[in-house]
Specification:
Strand order of the largest sheet: 1-4-5-6-7
Order of helices and strands: EEEHHEEEEH
Helix content: 25-40%
């Protein structure tokens, strides 16, 4: 999985770089696939580390042959994939919904603001035998950011001295967690649509 968008959100309270989680997309996808139906739904093979696996298998064969000769036990064949799951982040929309409220009385004020972003991911199921795209799903998750602040603006000593105090805090929903939730929702939709089109059967279905 990769990203088809590199849009950043930068404002006075937070910096969000969605492409910084790209290296975790495959981690989230594999996690969602291996946990579907407690690990009993998909058989997942990881091709990202195929070079390491190949080297280790070669080392095992050479070691066995050195100690056991030509009659050494052979390694089982690698599991091949019948389907490939591909996709990535296709959209990151900033400030889809923004707003806030505030009040001030006698130099004392308070305010609250919020902003909502949306991350959108795409997951495709592709047949290895034909290259045909069997299923295609789009999943989205909102990312909420809130800010709360207060200030005091007063003149003292008969209006000759100014006292100004400001404080505030922000809370930003994790982009990584939102991406993980979007991928999990996409995998769930993929399973349900696959059952609908007859690619597999869920327990309890006839």
């Amino acid at each position: 999985m990769n990203s088809l968008t590199r849009r950043d959100r930068r404002d006075r309270t937070v910096v969000v770089e969605p492409h910084s989680v790209l290296r975790l997309l495959n981690v989230y996808l594999i996690r969602a696939l291996t946990r579907a139906s407690n690990g009993n739904f998909f058989r997942v093979v990881d091709r990202q580390i195929i070079d390491h696996v190949t080297r280790e298998r070669q080392l095992i064969r050479q070691t066995r042959q050195s100690y056991e000769g030509n009659d050494s036990q052979k390694l089982p064949a690698l599991t091949f994939a019948g389907m490939i799951i591909a996709g990535g982040i296709v959209g990151y929309d900033t400030s889809v919904d923004t707003g806030g409220a505030g009040a001030r009385y006698l130099g004392i004020g308070t305010s609250r603001e919020y902003s909502r972003d949306t991350v959108t991911i795409n997951i495709r199921l592709v047949s290895v035998a034909t290259g045909e795209v069997l299923l295609d799903v789009i999943s989205s998750k909102t990312i909420l950011s809130t800010a709360f602040g207060g200030d005091v603006f007063k003149f003292i000593e008969q209006g000759t001295e100014l006292v100004e105090i400001e404080s505030g805090s922000t809370k930003n929903e994790s982009v990584s967690i939102a991406t993980q939730r979007a991928i999990e929702a996409g995998v769930l939709e993929l399973i349900l649509r696959g059952s609908k089109y007859g690619f597999w059967t869920l327990n309890g279905e006839k």
